[in-house]
Amino acid sequence: MFFQGKDYIRPSKKLRLLSVVQALTENERLSQTQLARFSRTSSAMVNQYLAELHREGMVQFAPVNRKSFAYRLTDKGQEARRNMMEQYCAEMVRGFASIKELVRRRLEPLAKRRDTPAIPNTPDAPNTPDAGEPAARHGLPPAPQRIAPQRIAPLRIALFGAAETGEVVLAALEGTPFEVTLVVDNDTTKHGTPFHGHTVQPPATLLAAPGQLAVDAVVVSSFAHQRAIQQQLLAMPGMPESAREVVVLL
What we know:
Layout: H1 13-26, H2 32-39, H3 43-55, E1 59-63, E2 69-73, H4 75-113, E3 118-120, H5 133-137, E4 150-152, E5 155-160, H6 164-172, E6 178-184, E7 194-195, E8 198-199, E9 207-209, E10 212-213, E11 217-220, H7 226-234, H8 243-246, E12 247-249
Parallel strand pairs: 5-6, 5-11, 11-12
Antiparallel strand pairs: 1-2, 3-4, 7-8, 9-10
Helix pairs in contact: 1-2, 1-4, 2-3, 4-6
Protein name: Winged helix-turn-helix transcriptional regulator
Organism: Nitratidesulfovibrio oxamicus
Pfam families: HTH_24
């Protein structure tokens, strides 16, 4: 249930304690071996945690038989669990926000380099040479012509990787000038399946025609296989030479 990395996000005592009390909230009949598996630590360490929680009045030991106990959280223990969970969630949200910011920064150069034609909105007034003639017939100077505001078409993005990292990228691009119009994946079992409002397609759909991408840029959202996917895309038959500039690795 709880994220525990090996190198960059190491489990702490607080995280293991939270794992233990959360597991007891869901099932007070769990053994120390089962609690150790849930919190990714040893049975001996869980025994120490339970003894500490018992001393602090957070856990009660209720005998089930001569060999086993039920470990019940007290009101004080439940309050401590809620406080720990609040802090844990706050840290996860901050980490998620940092990853979203990373994604946006990686895509900023694309927004600066793009040369997308502007799509004019419907003009507020006619913008023709004879627009001022009615005023001229009454001896008045022609009214200044108003130029309609223009909106820039969003940059069309293909997401390569329909997994958890792809979900983060989709969330990061909300409210930006980027629009995910295509999601592709190498996993054939995912083809045709829904993915957050998109249908996962095979990589071949990245090409609208030989030498022409169907999107403006491809974001590779698989951290584990970024380089391999990049090489796959650049070697794909019909992939334009410009793909080297618009395949983005996070």
